[in-house]
Amino acid sequence: MTQQTTPDARPGELALTVDELAARAGVTVRTVRFYSTRGLLPPPAIGPRRVGRYGHEHLSRLALIEELQHQGMTLAAIERYLEQLPSDLSAHDLAIHRALVASWVPDRAEEITRERLERRMGRALSDEDLDRLTAMSVLVRTDDPAVFQTDAALLPLGIRLLDVPISPEAILAARTVMVEHTRSAARELSRLFREEVGEPSGEGAPDPERVARTRSLSAHMQPLVVQALVTAFQRSMKEELRTWLGKGGG
Q1: What are 153-171's pLDDT values in tens digits?
Q2: Contact assessment for residue 91 and residue 59, using Cβ atoms and an 8 Å cutoff
Q3: Which of 74, 76, 70 is nearest to 39 (CA)?
Q4: Domain residue spans of the chain
Q5: Residue 155: which of 120, 124, 126, 187 has the closest Cα?
Q6: Where would I find the beta strands (DSSP E) of the chain?
Q7: 47: buried, middle or exposed (CB in 10 Å: 19+, 13-18, 0-12)?
Q8: CATH of domain 4-161
């Protein structure tokens, strides 16, 4: 891949060295470089003194790769999966995509201290920041005020939302809307899946063939459904913004 030369990052953008990127993503520098050679990560921008600089998109892509690995996908399968994604997905889109992918697997809550959380996020966290992350359900408080439970799949999205000027109350209301609509979509999709594989008889042990068909259908549909949800949401939001701002046409 051709590396890009760029001036210093604009305000609000990241300009991480490979070591800083690896620390933020929780992987090794060797892993970052390996993924880059396989084309799983876009090339870094080249800054002063020919030092490669990485940004939000690299962090989001590393997080998505990690999530797909948690689901047992091989590196070759992950390469095919990423190739199916639209080429213009932003770091924010990738973070949403990862959160949607994670919803297909059991919740994996892990405990994390405030100090470790700040290292993962690459920033100091105020009490207000913690309140906002809790409102988004990125964090769950424990009996120890310095220890939280979190789902690592939601952390990249939470990091980006910290910089959005919106109140915790509005975040909570927005989350409620998202949960209600995604659950409704999940129920309808489950109904379609059941119609395809057939309803269980309700007698004795589950039919192994039916279980295998259900798993196979879910595995094939998962990337398509996630991609369709992200694409449909992007288009709907653009239409809503055009209406809201009173701008006709593209």
Answers
A1: 677 777 777 877 777 677 7
A2: yes
A3: 76
A4: 4-161
A5: 120
A6: 4-5, 45-46, 52-53, 109-113, 139-141, 147-151
A7: middle
A8: 1.10.1660.10
